[in-house]
Amino acid sequence: MDVFGLLGNPVGHSLSPPLHEAAYDELGLEARYVTFEPKPEAIGAAIEGAKALGIAGLNVTIPFKQDVLECVEADELATRIGAVNTIDFTGSGPPTGHNTDAAGALRALRDHDVTLADARAVVVGAGGAGRAIAFGLADAGATVDVANRTESTAHDLADEVPNATGYGLDSLERIVADADVLVNATSVGMKEDATPVPPAHLHGDLAVLDAVYQPLETQLLQDAREAGATTVDGAWMLLYQGVEALELWTGRDAPVDAMNEALRSQL
């Protein structure tokens, strides 16, 4: 039996176990997905222990996505993003580190027929999710505007991302007006009736992805729908980052429909 799992602290409310175990059932794999909560100072030992125990793969979440970079051979994208959320132990060498957050966002958008090549994208938030999504959009051929509460942080990220420009939140009205894609990569709207983008800035030519998935329809997505925009809830991004990890670990095409049904049944 293969064992996969999630490293984080805390992980008690994670939706990853039902998401992945639905895939194992659908594919007929002898596998289980479990959660681990190592202490922050023990993350290196946790990775070594996982390898010694024959664990096949691990997802990584807060607060360890940066810490595990020192414990794995990170691929080029994860190195640029500066964070690892998926570790593969199946090779003969050291464990390899990957970041599927970027692919999760891109696949969520493409699943809703959003064209990314030559698009102008606005990413609100320059933290971990914002970094991953900004790099992913740029690699897909989009021009990226990063807007952040601390403008200097947006400039710092934009300096690293090809074809990107940094802004403060006071520039949102101007840059969203010319945008094709808008992504909220902040926690604004999580379990609250708040939005990072005033509704007057939204328009019908936008595709809007909100990385927040609780609630599924955030205030931002409600406002975007009323403006005639295409809306993509955060569960799609969560789904596809898990799909990417599963396909990396197993070499099999993920049963997306079964995974999506299992995920949304928990929300």
Q: Which percent range describes the beta-strand content?
A: 15-25%
- Range of helix content: 25-40%
Main sheet strand line-up: 2-1-3-5-6-4
- The secondary-structure element order is EHEHEEHEEHEHEHEHEEHEHH
Spatial extent as radius of gyration: 18 Å
Secondary structure: number of strands: 12
Biggest beta-sheet profile? 6 strands, mixed
Shape: globular
Structural class: alpha/beta
Number of H/I helices:
10
Low-confidence spans:
none
Description:
By secondary structure, the protein is of the alpha/beta class. The protein contains 10 helices and 12 strands. The chain has a 6-stranded mixed β-sheet with strand order 2-1-3-5-6-4. Strands 9-8-7-10-11-12 form a 6-stranded parallel β-sheet, sandwiched between helices. α5 links the parallel β7 and β8. The radius of gyration is 18 Å and the shape is globular. The relative contact order is 0.14.
Entry summary:
The protein is an alpha/beta fold and 267 residues long.
Topology:
Blueprint: E1 2-7, H1 16-27, E2 31-36, H2 43-52, E3 57-60, E4 73-74, H3 76-81, E5 86-88, E6 96-98, H4 101-111, E7 120-124, H5 128-139, E8 143-148, H6 151-160, E9 164-168, H7 172-177, E10 181-184, E11 207-210, H8 219-226, E12 230-232, H9 234-250, H10 256-264
Parallel strand pairs: 1-2, 1-3, 4-6, 7-8, 7-10, 8-9, 10-11, 11-12
Antiparallel strand pairs: 3-5, 5-6
Main features:
267 residues, alpha/beta, 6-stranded mixed sheet, 6-stranded parallel sheet, 19% strand
